[in-house]
Structure formats: C-alpha cells, structure tokens
Amino acid sequence: MLISTFNTSIFIELKKVYVGVEIELSNKGKVYVYISKNPVIQHNLQFEEDYKIAKQIDKKLKRMALEKNRLD
Questions:
Q1: Bridge partner list, 3
Q2: What angle do CA 39, 45, 49 make, to 5 degrees?
Q3: What's this model's pTM, rounded to 2 decimal places?
Q4: What is the C-alpha to C-alpha distance for residues 55 and 68, in angstroms, rounded to an integer?
Q5: Where are the alpha helices (DSSP H) in the chain?
Q6: Dihedral sign for Cα atoms in the order 34, 53, 1, 15
Q7: Which of the 8 DSSP states describes residue 43?
Q8: What contacts 23, CB < 8 A, 6 or more positions away?
Q9: Is 54 helix (H, G, I), strand (E, B) or coil?
C-alpha cells in the first residue's frame, strides 16, 4: 500500500494523506496509482474505504502476477 502525506500537521490524527498502490514493473520501474480523489484524514471513514479498495487492487495484481509467472 502507498500512503503519501499531503500536509505536515503535528497532530497525527489530523494528517491528510492520499491512499494508493505502488506497482513494480518487470523492468524494476515503479508506477503509483492513487485511489483517493482528494486528500483524506488518516484513519477516518473515507481513509478506511480508500485503503480497503487499495488492498483489493493490490491483492488482485499480485494474483495476476503469480498466474503469469506460472504460465512462463
């Protein structure tokens, strides 16, 4: 999972972040796909929803990579 900070609030519960997925390419490059449309406050309802979607995408991408490796 990828969680990138939007601001530098000293109150960790008020920190705004973007939730996303980091994808490592076969050439060892990386691509970042953000789930959050707007920065969300960490650990609030919208954060949890975005994080859940990111986990589902990450799980599916890992499954697809394993299947491809089996076919190669």
A1: 19
A2: 80
A3: 0.75
A4: 20
A5: 45-71
A6: positive
A7: T
A8: 30, 31, 32, 33, 61
A9: helix
Phi, psi of 44 (to 5 degrees): -95, -175
Q: How many CB atoms lie within 10 A of CB 50?
A: 22
Q: What is the pLDDT along the chain (72 residues), one digit of tens a residue?
A: 667 665 555 565 677 888 999 988 889 899 998 999 998 888 889 999 999 999 999 999 999 988 988 887
- Token reading at 22: 């980091």
Q: Looking up tokens 């390419």, which residue turns up?
A: 25
Helix/strand/coil for 36: coil
Angle at 54 between CA 19 and CA 20, to 5 degrees: 30
Q: What spatial distance separates the first Cα and last Cα of the chain, rounded to whole Å?
A: 27
